[in-house]
Amino acid sequence: MSEILLEARNLKKQFDLPAPPFGRSNVITALDGVSITLQQGETLGLAGESGCGKSTVARLLMGLEEPTSGEILFRGREIARFNKAEKFSFRRAIQMVFQDPYSSLNPRMRVGEIIGEPLLIHRITSGSDHRERVLALMNQVGLPPEQYDRYPHEFSGGQRQRIGVARALALTPELIIADEPLSALDISIQAQIINLLIDLQKTFRLSYLLISHDLAVIRHLSSKVAVMYLGRIVEQAGTEDIFRTPLHPYTKALLAAIPGFGTPTGSSRLLEGDIPSPIAPPSGCPFHPRCPYKKDICTVADPVLEEKAAGHVAACHFSSELSTC
């Protein structure tokens, strides 16, 4: 059995909003009890609509922000208790590929400088060794050496994302968090980046946390899927289990929105409405205002995230009925 690399336990994150004139300040709950486990060498897909809290999870796991409550453990140790040297090593072990390859690269830096910057910051290379290491990284992601001295504006979107991947690989990380890495790219280019990520994972035994609103992309890359809604995990299981037998109506709606996709259960109800405000979430099940299967209990009782089948958890009062409709 693979070793647990990263674990989040009951993460909660709240933000204080500025008080309006003559009014009281509000608290927005971005995350409400999120727990995930990522094993060495696996890919966990984190799915959900924009605004559900996926990127907040990424920032907390990277150590860029601190949770309001809950724990984050890296190789069994809580990162909040790391000393200075341990934090430095942790930042090397977890790297990020950003959503927008157009804005995540410094337009004033040449490609060789962008990819090599982490190596200089962490004092890993210097002199001629530095250039050779950067060229090797470029080769690994399919960028020819003659592009070393070019600027980001001279590259296509797919090439810029390759630059971002090379930069993330520079410190030989154990985990790469990819936050919507394909959403700004054309479909044909998306396939190239998917194949690149798969090849790199096999070569370096990388772990991925893939954040995406696109379940079709997640299916290609992930071995396990967690579906988020309004700051919570509402369903989690192996990828094929999620696609074959979704046990939460939100997951069923996301699957129904994939062009040409039809589940064996014949779900065809598309999702309507918007995500409720996290400032004033609905009572009971947070999904009930948009749920086509809701009943009276859904408006008053918040369902518990619990195991419905082996390795398959969901937060729905009527999961057993959904599996047959």
Walkthrough of the structure:
A hairpin with an 8-residue loop joins β1 (4-17) and β2. The chain is an alpha/beta fold and 325 residues long. It has helices at 54-62, 84-93, 111-121, 127-140, 157-169, 187-204, 215-221, 239-244, 249-256, 319-322, and strands spanning 4-17, 26-39, 43-47, 69-74, 77-78, 94-97, 175-179, 207-212, 224-229, 232-238, 306-309, 312-314. The strands form 2 sheets. Strands 6-7-8-3-9-10-12-11 form an 8-stranded mixed sheet, sandwiched between helices. Strands 2-1-4-5 form a 4-stranded antiparallel sheet, with helices on one face. The model is unreliable at 263-267 (pLDDT under 50). α3 (111-121) packs parallel to α5 (157-169), α4 (127-140) crosses α5 (157-169) and α5 runs parallel beside α6 (187-204).
